[in-house]
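Lab notebook: predicted structure, single chain.

Context: the supervisor wants predicted structures on file for every construct in the current expression panel, including those that have not yet been purified. This is the next one on the list. No modifications to the sequence; it matches the entry in the shared construct table.
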Amino acid sequence: MATIESATDVRAFHTEVSEEELADLRRRIAATRWPSKELVDDRSQGVQLPTMQALASYWMNEYDWRKAEAKLNALPQFTTEIDGIEIHFIHVKSEHEDALPLIMTHGWPGSVIELLETIGPLTDPTAHGGGAEDAFDLVLPSVPGYGFSAEPTELGWWAGRAAQAWPELMRRLGYTRYVAQGGDVGAAVTDAMGRQAPEGLIGIHTNLFVPVLAGRLAAETEQERAATEQLDTFRATGSGYFLEQATRPQTIGYALLDSPVALAAWMLDHDTDSYYKISRAFVDGEPTGNLTRDHILDNVTLYWLTGTGASAARAYWESGQATAKTGGQAPPPMTLPFGFTTFPGEIWKTPRSWVEKAYPDVIYFNEVDKGGHFAAWEEPELFSTEIRAAFRSLRNAEAGS
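Prediction complete. Output recorded below exactly as produced.
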């Protein structure tokens, strides 16, 4: 007798891409119509031709998606329907007792791929320089419209709505007490979760300072003035992708779904620090940390094979629309314990003073000496050490209560 699955079922997930899809990818790369070389010696006109030609050559002739596919399929992957959307997520339980549940959200142009190398350090800290008392049960969802999660078919799926879906996911997995973390788009989701303060969420950590995206903050100290200058530079010369996706995601979507090289170039043109690190990996064969050629292409190829370039871009439009509807009103206050780590290669170096003005209960703040915007991807061991440290006081407080 056939069984009828309910909308709340959690189902195992496995992916297998056909050889025809991979052959079509290589054919499209080979058929690329290349622009002439940029007329400057830096990235001020965009992603440089030598970088893209080196990437395309490696992608077409040496890269092996099957390795990424095997890595993903070796992990416990699932899907479940929440608020009308099929959500994909990785769920790795720690073997250590009393592991703290952690839901961690990726950003753009990332995916769950950028978080994979943190799974070991977070779920099994004893094998990575930590103690058993720092272990996490880890939940890594794909934001709707990204990767293996379904595309929204109705308006309204912005960061705040994902923030409403994640507590239901954690409840469905049986967790009544948990923490959350995010960077980039994932930071916006996590920040919104903290402000919504769902039952069971006891604290959050981010590595992108979300409040400054709503407008300028005080620039009274030397650190605040330096951060403001970095933000002004980004807004003037580095935020083209942000503006396009926030205002015309459908327009860029045609290129992202039709040309793999256009997709890769669009995803590389994010921030200066990450761009040059990735460029060196392809042009000079010198990766920085975990930003290797294969890992970068694992992420780009996931976008290509799932056809999610346009739907991921629309998430920026949705967040812009949601912000406009507030009429400039301040978001709900944050009352939960908050932790923050600033990485030196981030788009701007967030000063502690800004963090303490925006979040009343700062339980952790640290500046580290390496890593950039994609910190979990680039420096997974260091990133994981920060996450363990950020939530340690919450564990200790509950243990002593």
